Amino acid sequence: MRIPVPLIVFVFGLLLTGLGLLAYFAFAVAEDRSWTAFIPAFWGVPIMVCAIASLFAQNVRKHAMHFVAMLALLGVLAPLGRLIPTSIKEGFTFDSKSFTQIAMCALCIGLLVVMVKSFISARRERKAAEA
Length: 131
Hints:
- The chain is an all-alpha fold.
- The chain has one domain (5-130).
- Helices cover 81% and strands 0% of the residues.
- Helix 1 runs antiparallel to helix 2 (39-56).
- The protein starts with a helix and ends with a helix.
- The model has no long low-confidence stretch (mean pLDDT 93).
């Protein structure tokens, strides 16, 4: 039994949203909280919306999934763009901020792998149907 890709995408969006909420409410002390802790949630919510849209509207699935792949790629690059320069300047410290950035990057890499495999599978199915 194959799990539909939009459901997998929805779970990744849910995990990213949960990571953002966890980073804001659980990792930071009330005085040190910053809205930037919600950044994973800013990625997760549109990913979940695209997953829901592609489940219920077949005609937008291709566009929604390509948008999710773009968000996943940016979700890999954005944390690295912050983590690497900070680590070079100040040295790497494993704290809640770096954990959140690493976790977001790992989730987005996983999502990107799922998306690429899905695109390859869809292309093979389309070519098989043409033949």
